[in-house]
């Protein structure tokens, strides 16, 4: 919240409107900011973030749009709020963003959010995203590394194959070793 507050204060030029949105406890006022015409992005972001932290699902659509924003701090604040929102649509939206090849440059925060959510969609989406990042000369190594780390944190045996493939990539090998070590070994059949 502190970094978001500092950033929106800068973006707003220290406006009284910004201070009011930071101080208000009125969720209806915050929700109104999301739909009011002419509101600047910083105001919409602040309102959505505060509503998300409060568990108010009116923030969902705005937070998903911010999760896919070109500005990493906006993505990070949206992911933080979405992780606390408790909306059942969040994992599906994060999976769609993480696996969208047209938006892969912005997939880092959706990937991290999927790991934090530990939802049924998390492992399949991280596997799909990582498989695509294992192509030669793929420029999205940070996304691939987040997938490897996320799959390790989730500890799901379905990730074993793709993590084994990640071992062949020097930038991912060490993380893949650690991720594989976190996946429970198969039990021998009796």
Automatic annotation (TrEMBL):
Source organism of the structure: Streptomyces collinus (strain DSM 40733 / Tue 365)
Gene Ontology MF annotations: lyase activity
Segments crossing the lipid bilayer: none
Keyword match Magnesium: no
Protein name: Adenylosuccinate lyase
Annotated EC: 4.3.2.2
Keywords on record: Lyase
NCBIfam families per record: PRK08937.3-1
């Amino acid at each position: 919240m502190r970094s978001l507050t500092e950033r929106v204060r800068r973006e707003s030029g220290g406006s009284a409107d910004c201070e009011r949105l930071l101080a208000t406890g009125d969720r209806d006022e915050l929700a109104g900011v999301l739909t009011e015409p002419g509101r600047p992005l910083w105001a919409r972001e602040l309102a959505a973030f505060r509503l998300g932290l409060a568990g108010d699902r009116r923030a969902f659509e705005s937070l998903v749009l911010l999760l896919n924003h070109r500005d990493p701090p906006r993505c990070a604040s949206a992911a933080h709020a979405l992780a606390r929102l408790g909306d059942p649509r969040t994992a599906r939206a994060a999976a769609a963003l993480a696996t969208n090849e047209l938006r892969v440059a912005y997939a880092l925060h959706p990937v991290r959010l999927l790991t934090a959510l530990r939802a049924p969609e998390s492992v399949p989406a991280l596997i799909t995203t990582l498989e695509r990042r294992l192509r030669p000369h793929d420029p999205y190594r940070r996304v691939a590394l987040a997938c490897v780390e996320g799959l390790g944190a989730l500890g799901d045996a379905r990730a074993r194959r793709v993590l084994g493939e990640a071992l062949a990539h020097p930038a991912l090998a060490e993380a893949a070793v650690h991720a594989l070590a976190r996946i429970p070994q198969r039990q021998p059949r009796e």
